[in-house]
Amino acid sequence: MSWIFRADKNGDGMKCYLDNVDTVERNLKDAGCDETLVKEFIKLIKTGERKRQLRMLEKHRSNLLEEIHKNEKKIECLDYLVCQMEKKMGKKIVVLSTSPRMGGNSEMMADAFIRGAAEAGHEAEKIHLYDKKIEFCKGCLACQHTGACVIRDDAAVIVEQMRQADVLVFATPIYFYEMSGQMKTLLDRTNPLFPGEYAFRDIYLLAASADEEASSMDGAVKGLEGWISCFEQAHLSGVIRGAGADKKGEIENVPEALNAAYEFGRNV
Ligand SMILES: Cc1cc2nc3c(=O)[nH]c(=O)nc-3n(C[C@H](O)[C@H](O)[C@H](O)COP(=O)(O)O)c2cc1C
């Protein structure tokens, strides 16, 4: 379509413009007027009935506006459907169990979260680090240019899974009032994600400590917050402090922590 908006070049006003019937006709057609309207309008140029002409243009304009509103309504209906479908589809959750102790307290919290998430229709995958080979970041920063790490070990696959997840859940034991070394090592190895796109938005932390004070998790929370601050679209959506669980399985004595993990999963 060509956009004309032709006016008379002489600046003589309406009379001169309307004298150029070809230009008027092209403008009317470009404005979407049908043949009948165009013919009628041009007939009225000769009789000089300007008021009727203006009424015709106003009518056509209001028809166009109505069409726009109808289309806006169609778009709103489509957006509503998409929104409802996305709600139903369920989120992709990656749960990182970072304790070296298989089936330990933090992993039990992770399992409770997964149970809740599965019941709510989400797709949750647990990745435990106790059987993975993940070396320390070398700090070469090659990944900032290439998007990939120079080290060939299990981190590459895990980091890619993290990149694609909507939700990340970190389960960790408290070691010397911090997150586990395994978790910190993995976080450092996510540096290839830093310059690019990532899907994750909600991050959860599930921590277990022998200490009964909730504050025993503060170091781990702060550490994870530091990592999250480097991924602007993500935020810490919840922390569960499984305090007062030392030996394997003792988290069962802290049912409120397991229940809270389950509820987080259900409401993720
Ligand atoms: C090396 C090491 C350091 C620990 N440091 C702390 C600590 O600083 N504070 C604490 O409350 N518990 C500490 N603990 C106890 C663990 O946090 C506790 O046993 C926790 O339940 C382990 O979780 P897991 O079963 O998921 O591995 C430590 C345990 C180990 C092995």
Helix content: 40-55%
pLDDT averaged over residues: 93
Strand order of the largest sheet: 2-1-3-4-5
Low-confidence parts lasting 5 or more residues at pLDDT below 50? none
Secondary structure class reads: alpha/beta
Radius of gyration: 32 Å
- The coarse silhouette is elongated
Please count the beta strands (DSSP E, at least 2 residues each). Answer: 5
Compressed to H and E, one letter per element, the order equals HHHHEHEHHEHEHEH
Largest sheet: 5 strands, parallel
- Structure ligands: flavin mononucleotide
Query: First CA to last CA: what distance?
Result: 49 Å
The count of helical stretches stands at: 10
Q: Estimate the strand proportion.
A: 5-15%
Give short descriptive properties of this protein:
5 strands, 268 residues, alpha/beta, 10 helices, binds flavin mononucleotide, five-stranded parallel sheet
List the helices and strands and how they pair.
Layout: H1 14-19, H2 21-30, H3 35-47, H4 50-89, E1 92-97, H5 105-119, E2 123-128, H6 143-146, H7 155-164, E3 167-173, H8 181-189, E4 202-209, H9 218-228, E5 235-243, H10 255-266
Parallel strand pairs: 1-2, 1-3, 3-4, 4-5
Helix pairs in contact: 2-3, 3-4, 5-10
